[in-house]
Known about the structure:
The complex is a heterodimer of chains A (about 350) and B (about 475). Chain A has about 350 residues and is α/β, with parallel strands linked by helices. Chain A is about 40% helix and about 25% strand.
Amino acid sequence: MTNRNNSKVASSLPEILLVEDLRKSYGPRPALHNLSFSLRAGRVMGFLGPNGAGKTTAIRILTTILEPDSGYFFVDGISSEYPEKIREKIGVLPESLGFPKQMTGHEFLSHFGELYGLAQNEAKSYAMELLEEVGLQQRGKSLIGTYSRGMRQRLGIARALINDPVVVFLDEPTLGLDPHGQQELLALVRRVAEERNAGVVLCSHLLPEIEGICDDVVILNSGQIVAAGSVVDVIGRVQRNIILNNGFRIQVPPPLVIEARRLLKDMPEIIEATSQGEADGWIRVELMNTSIGSSSHDSQINNKILKALINAKITILNFETEGGRLQDVFLRLTEETIE
Amino acid sequence: MNEKRVMNHRNIRTSRSRRPAWLVLLMWELKELWIGGKALILIILFSVLLGIMAWLLATNSELNLIPPKEMVFLTLQAAIAVGLFISLIIGADSVSGERERATFEGLLLTPASRRQIILGKFLAAISPWPVAFAITFPYLIVLSQGDGTVVINSLLWGFLLGSILTLAYTGFAVLVSIGTNSNRTSLFVSLAIYVICLLPTQFPGPAQAGFAGQFVKKINPMEATNQFLEKVIVNNRTPQEMALWLRAPVIFFVLAIFILFWYVGPRLSFDAGRIWMRRPSRSRTAVLSLAIGLMVVLATTPVMAVPARALDNETALNISIDITYKTIKTGDTVNFNTTVTNSGTEESPPMFVAMNIINLAKDGDPVDPEDWSPERTQAIESLAANQSDTQSWSIHAILDGDYMVYMVLVPEPDGAQSTSQPVVSSGIHITVTPFASLNPGGVLPLALGMPVGLTLLLFVLLWNRNRSINVGRSSSVV
């Protein structure tokens, strides 16, 4: 369905956003340090970070609303020295975008179409197509004031697509939507990347959902990139560190907890197996540090432990590696830097 | 989809029928303002105000003694003040309002240049002025009672100067709006400046006399415009004579537009604070400082020139009058004061002040003041150095015509074999018009018809608008 698992295909796509050493300070307070990353066509990049990490500043610089103190970026080969040309190539849905309530969705899109250089009739017909694409064709001639929050966000995405952009920036597009609305909107975002072959930079706090639709991820903390790459690579990298230094958790039937702990403690790869502070039936296993650190070696250790438990007729109800999800990675990385 | 994008981009590049960004923005803003927006409602209120004013002028037993020329001037003055006010508040809302409604970022994200954005918004903000003037014009025709010169003067000069003032004050309001994130602050600052400029026009005559009064009059664009219009429309002065009064509004207009489009416009940014934080280029700052300096010098030159000319004729004694012109009807009374000042270092001799009146319409024929005033001369005791004395006078207008009243101060000679140097005051230009009463029936249909017509237009526009949209809610999607 996506490009995320096909790194060969991904690397053959052109780089449509290239960011090099962006810096920005507000007075003495630095907001961004040496921000560098790239995005390829047709891929969705999650742009993550805790509040105040510099995400909005970065997005505003990349969308030419703010000027960086130093550094540069290219959009589809156009340098940041030409902001008006860059704006022709990008589509943006800012966080909390306001809408004119006394205008219809169709009028709103046609207006922006004209501002992007379309003739009046072209703008009107393209606005109709876009309303259909985002599922608002039935409400195109209704006043925006009567739209729900989700419909406004869809309209905002349609506005971001009016110039058929090469890169689309979406800042918290799911904010304030119910779970169903969030799901529909994220599916729309994925479709935009795939069908239009546009690169999408997606800022969101919905980490499980981001993990579901993003190919790449950039995690910011205190204005610096703490992790960047494909979602799979970033999770793998951090996960490995967490497992090797800490361990995993396993759930067995509560009566078998003591027996399982005894068995695990006897294994040479395990430092500690404890149920203290854990929910009923859960055991936290701390592994020895190894200098190898490859994912195949980790899998071998995991398999050996699980096999030993199965041989001892201990039923395994659940197995969870710490740091196995983007949310864990995010918390781990941002927590470490904060500490 | 890639093909679609390529095609779309090709269309953007080759589309010859596309409109420039400022025009797109202007049309959008006009639609927002005039169809169900605040502009039409404010214009309806304006027409109601104008109707009430015209009706009062026509029917009130005291007000309808005002000569038609003066009625035209008063109506024009109100039209400019209110039309300007409407444009000012729209201009003050233009950028800060968008910032507050969070719609500004979307606009800045388009490829439209910052200057084009400002141009579109500025033109939309001034759009109420021509409408307000068009509404006023029928009232001017009715109130002028067929005086073609008055109609032409009010049409030409009223529209020209009203436009200059509207452009200048709206430009200023847009500047304020660009410089603040809060709509309330923007409105407050713009209205404060408006009120500061408007208030002196309402001061009583004596408060407007003297150097300070003249200075304020000449540097205040609103008051200078009123002076020009009143003298040209009411007092039959030529525009060439009154050209000095045009400097303040023209300079204010040039400065406001220059700063808006050349200096601040290109620096328009998402956050108002950043405009002031961004360091402008040295050349830009130098040109701006030079321009402002030049404009200030030009604006103050005529003001400073007044005492300079006075110094040429400086004597130890001088006499001034607190009014310069007046338009009245036959039977009216004009009251005024003269002030004699000894600005020398020694005590003056006793003096006399004599009133003189000449008929300008009859080759300067002298008019016998005895018919016009209870006292033709007043005696003054000696004045110590830097001492002044004020005298009160009154004149009853007996016949219609165009008159000049001037006073002569005669110091008493030392003896039989000596003389003294009389000093002449500035004149009071008195225009006496025949008594006339305006037919109220001519104003009533206009006073009632205009607001009703505009309100009907508003309903038609809203009805037409509602036909083109789906008013109801739909339960579809998200």
